[in-house]
Automatic annotation (TrEMBL):
<feature type="domain" description="Oxidoreductase molybdopterin-binding">
    <location>
        <begin position="39"/>
        <end position="172"/>
    </location>
</feature>
<feature type="signal peptide">
    <location>
        <begin position="1"/>
        <end position="36"/>
    </location>
</feature>
<dbReference type="InterPro" id="IPR000572">
    <property type="entry name" value="OxRdtase_Mopterin-bd_dom"/>
</dbReference>
<protein>
    <submittedName>
        <fullName>Molybdopterin-dependent oxidoreductase</fullName>
    </submittedName>
</protein>
<dbReference type="InterPro" id="IPR036374">
    <property type="entry name" value="OxRdtase_Mopterin-bd_sf"/>
</dbReference>
<keyword id="KW-0732">Signal</keyword>
<dbReference type="Pfam" id="PF00174">
    <property type="entry name" value="Oxidored_molyb"/>
</dbReference>
Length: 176
């Protein structure tokens, strides 16, 4: 009988320690995911790598675009034109986007590891007619959990596969 109680007394504290460790890890991951969602980084082949907070992005001029989401319905998205963010970071755009610079591209990454690619000329208004947007709201409301706080919206694409959700970073690279 004495051995049973001895084992029970050592097992219970071990269970409590294990449960505490699991809870701490869960909260750490939850906070890390929340922080990853509120910060946007722009890096790579830029002159001014950026780390932008929610307040920084909210303070920037916003524009609106209309586009059909996977549900087939048109929605009004508001956010910052991707080109404006790239200009702020010093990406090669406008008159400098010629010659070898035409093989530069942007890789947009989500917190879940999903990535999409855009050639810089398709983002630049000197080459393209559409505005690719880093949206932070849809139909007048903030983007819902699991979609926002930032989402790339590409009006006019037949499939919204590049409408990447939960954007965390943009990296400019050379295709060479």
């Amino acid at each position: 009988m004495h051995n049973f109680f001895l084992n029970q007394n050592t097992v219970l504290p071990n269970c409590i320690r294990y449960a505490s460790a699991v809870l701490c890890l869960f909260f750490f991951l939850l906070v890390t995911r929340a922080n990853a969602q509120t910060v946007l980084t722009i890096s790579g082949e830029v002159t001014k790598p950026l780390t932008l907070q929610v307040a920084d992005l909210k303070a920037m001029p916003h524009t609106s675009v209309t586009g059909k989401d996977r549900d087939g319905k048109e929605h009004q998205y508001s956010g910052i034109p991707l080109v404006d963010l790239l200009k702020l970071a010093g990406a090669t755009l406008g008159g400098e986007l010629r010659g070898e610079n035409l093989v530069k591209y942007a890789v947009v990454k989500a917190i879940d590891g999903y990535e999409v690619l855009f050639a810089l000329p398709e983002i630049d208004p000197e080459y393209a007619t559409r505005t690719i947007l880093l949206a932070d709201s849809v139909d007048g409301s903030p983007l819902p959990q699991g979609v926002g706080p930032y989402r790339v919206v590409v009006p006019g694409e037949k499939k919204p596969a590049r409408w990447i959700r939960e954007v965390k970073s943009i990296e400019i690279r050379f295709a060479k």
